[in-house]
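Input sequence (116 aa), recorded before submission:
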Amino acid sequence: MDRLYKKGFIVKDGGEWFIGKSGKEYLNSNNLKSFESPFVKGAKKDLLIMFDVPEECRHYRNWLRKQLKEFGYVMVQQSVWAGPSPLPKEFKDYIKKLKLQKNIRTFKLARAFSTK
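Predicted structure, token format:
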């Protein structure tokens, strides 16, 4: 209980315990939408995605990495990924809903990215 309290997962108010801000964020992070990949396996990787999601939103960052892997993207550097395009409209709309669009940049590549 002490650790949960110190991390803000729970708060005490008048002798009663409640879920705190960090606790709510943690619970919501497990409810993020998942998208099926619309791309065929081995599709050319002609889109570069760069993102900088703040540490306090790491659950969004982890979700984004997982989703990019699902779409067949490969990590070039820690927050730089290459994969097929175009990203699904529903996915881009969800990014906007999460208010992450200002943290993500996409670049169409002239040539497909190769890991070889």
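Checked by second reader. The beta strands are 10-13, 16-19, 45-51, 74-77, 80-83, 104-113.
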